[in-house]
Design a protein that fits this description.
The structure is a homodimer.
Chain A: E1 5-7, E2 14-21, H1 25-32, H2 38-41, E3 48-54, E4 61-67, E5 73-84, E6 88-95, E7 102-111, E8 117-125, H3 128-162
Antiparallel strand pairs in A: 1-2, 2-8, 3-4, 4-5, 5-6, 6-7, 7-8
């Protein structure tokens, strides 16, 4: 099984994650950008994720709310800068618990041989401190679980289609 | 006269400009975000700037086209992530001559004593290479001229209001 790689160079306000998925690029892009699939993969599994807004086009707003078993809510929002199917999505990202700290996220989808797809997600923060605070918040485990859930969802969809 | 400071630390994909303006914060914010004023200050004076789009609100698109005396055109666009009057504007930025290279821009307006305002504009790029390419393109002189034109416009507006 391929694993998610997380790259965070010291002194750079950049966080990069990359992983190979065993699914064709069109499908990977479609699932990544479909509001109905977000609750199935976005965030760690013990949180319930609700899509409040997700208008996947330049200028479109997105907002997701996560709820933990105790009923606490964590919300995130941003706006899409560019959506280039099936190659690339560029959007802003803000955790409402740290208002004013905004990141720019770029997801790139590269087609590999054998119908696989490499996804590379790069976040640039307004400062190294913001980047390090994000890593310190324990996002790494959550992000890796997110990408694992995404891989499982792709497998489930492909199995259902093949049947 | 105060001068524009440009800060670009090595190995960081960040470019920061800051300057003090002799005008109150509400006015500085208003002029910064008004489409009708953009042709009077945005970019170096030898270029004609046309506002194609400028919808100053979260999710709003902006697009400016600059024309040189030979008729060559240079276009820029992005989307607003947040507009918090009179404190802060966060938006994306893309030069259409380098498609796919996107920056996140944050302008912060701080009120100073004596009715002055400090503006700090921070751009974070997707890589240090992108940042350095932007600096290498000669943007520094253009940016300093831009901020000088902005200061002059503020002075002109204040004189007209005081009359």
């Amino acid at each position: 099984m391929t694993r998610t790689k997380l790259i965070a160079e010291p002194d750079k306000p950049i966080l990069r994650m990359t992983r190979e998925f065993d699914a064709p690029r069109d499908l990977v892009f479609e699932v990544w950008t479909a509001p109905e699939h977000i609750p199935q993969w976005w965030g760690p599994g013990y949180l319930t994720t609700i899509v409040d807004k997700m208008d996947v086009q330049a200028g479109g707003l997105w907002r997701f709310v996560q709820r933990d078993p105790q009923g606490n809510e964590y919300a995130f929002h941003g706006v899409y800068h560019a959506v280039v199917s099936p190659e690339r999505v560029v959007n802003t990202f803000e955790f409402e618990g740290a208002p004013g700290q905004v990141a720019l996220e770029t997801a790139v989808f590269d087609a590999l041989p054998d119908g696989k797809t490499q996804v590379t997600a790069t976040s640039v923060f307004q400062s190294v401190e913001d980047r390090d605070a994000m890593i310190g918040s324990g996002m790494e485990d959550g992000a890796k679980e997110t990408w694992e859930r995404f891989a499982q969802l792709l497998a489930t969809i492909q199995q259902a289609t093949a049947r």
